[in-house]
Write a structure and sequence with these properties.
Layout lengths: L2 H16 L4 H4 L7 E6 L7 H4 L7 E7 L3 H10 L7 E2 L2 H8 L3 E4 L6 H8 L6 E4 L6 H14 L3 E4 L6 H11 L1 H4 L2 E9 L3 H4 L3 H7 L10 H16 L7 E7 L12 E7 L4 E7 L6 E8 L3 E4 L4 E5 L6 E4 L2 H4 L5 H10 L12 H20 L3 E2 L4
Length: 376
């Protein structure tokens, strides 16, 4: 066969491989917009995607929601074509063949989304936390490994430039020394008080759908995620948790106040999760042997190094290479423009540990005793 003909056939083979459905698994970068579908829209954060218009990077191609009334409301609110909506998840996946799926349903629905998507090789990103139980999280891990698919978890604090800046400063032991104490504050005035939608309120305050906790699950997961990232995947030795119902008339079935203490061989973390703050907050204090990094907003922080005076910083996303759009992050992972680092904020490894911490925290709050994770 002439050399030119061989070269032509080889080029045709490469083009065919690049557009084959298995190309993404094989490591071939995807071209064109990433086609995302949604599995469940009863999470209040659904507006992040439903209000986003198709662009050159992301197209919304399908929405699964079994609650027809909710689907109709969202279609009208966001001026969405009703042909996008499906009442059966498997039917949607077969018909639209998305590149990735986003889970915006109750936390206890996350496993069923992964069970539907993983065998088809479809990556999934769910809203925090990953799962209601460690057992469900482990099932997701098994599915991810079996089908070689990604399962990511989205936290708002993952797209804060100050989060990555704190990580970088903590990793630089010459700046602040070994981490000794981390204090994380997360929450707001309460779901009812801030006026969340009724369908979101229904499952957020349901002990089964939200995994046996209120503020503990809703906001305790942030601190567990951040501390696991800062400690580079280290599992805490012990977990101690105290919960309260400060507003039982509003939240009769779940806690609205939780404090979790995590201990490590060289550090301690205090997570203060609450539906009783007087204002919205997601801030963190990281203290080392000789310095600190204290954030007050997603971009504002104060830092002090071992041999330097305190500085006030406004951290820009480009300085820390932070994605401020989680869907673009997910799309770029699917495109293979970036990879999810082991024990990164979105990673399955990190969020498996988060699930273990939350389960231990619920056990501690119920029993009134510290849970030793090293023995579990």
């Amino acid at each position: 066969m002439p050399a030119q003909k061989k070269l032509l056939l080889f080029c045709i083979f490469l083009l065919a491989a690049a557009f084959h459905p298995a190309a993404a698994k094989a490591g071939v970068a995807q071209a064109g917009p990433v086609r995302l579908a949604v599995a469940g829209i009863s999470h209040g954060h659904n507006s992040w995607l439903l209000s986003r218009k198709d662009d050159d990077l992301i197209h919304l191609v399908g929405i699964y929601e079994s609650n027809r009334q909710l689907a109709e409301q969202m279609a009208q609110k966001y001026n969405l074509d009703k042909s996008l909506f499906f009442t059966d998840l498997s039917t949607m996946l077969e018909k639209v063949k998305p590149d990735g799926v986003l889970g915006f349903g109750p936390t206890n629905s996350h496993l069923s989304v992964v069970e539907a998507c993983a065998p088809k090789g479809i990556p999934v990103m769910v809203e925090k936390p990953l799962a209601t139980t460690a057992a469900d999280a482990n099932k997701m891990l098994a599915l991810s490994k079996k089908y070689n698919t990604l399962v990511l978890t989205n936290f708002e604090t993952s797209w804060y430039p100050v989060t990555e800046k704190a990580y970088q400063l903590a990793a630089d032991t010459s700046f602040m020394g070994t981490i000794r104490k981390v204090v994380v504050h997360d929450g707001h005035m309460g779901p009812k008080e801030i006026g969340v939608q009724p369908w979101f309120f229904e499952w957020l305050t349901d002990p089964v759908k939200n995994g046996g906790g209120g503020a503990l699950m809703d906001f305790g997961c942030y601190g567990a995620n951040l501390m696991t990232y800062l400690m580079k995947g280290q599992i805490p030795q012990t977990v101690t948790c105290v919960t309260q119902q400060l507003k039982p008339a509003i939240y009769p079935k779940v806690d609205d106040e939780a404090t979790i203490i995590l201990t490590y061989p060289t550090a301690q973390c205090i997570i203060q999760a609450s539906w009783s703050w007087p204002y919205h907050r997601k801030d963190m204090e990281v203290y080392g042997e000789a310095g600190y990094a204290i954030s007050s907003t997603n971009k504002d922080m104060r830092i002090k190094g071992r041999n330097s005076p305190e500085q006030v910083l406004v951290v820009k996303p480009e300085e820390t290479h932070t994605y401020t759009d989680p869907f673009l992050y997910f799309a770029d992972v699917i495109r293979k423009k970036i990879t999810v680092p082991p024990y990164g904020l979105y990673s399955l490894e990190t969020n498996l540990i988060v699930a273990k911490i939350l389960e231990a925290a619920k056990e501690s709050a119920k029993s009134g005793r510290t849970v030793n994770l090293k023995k579990s």
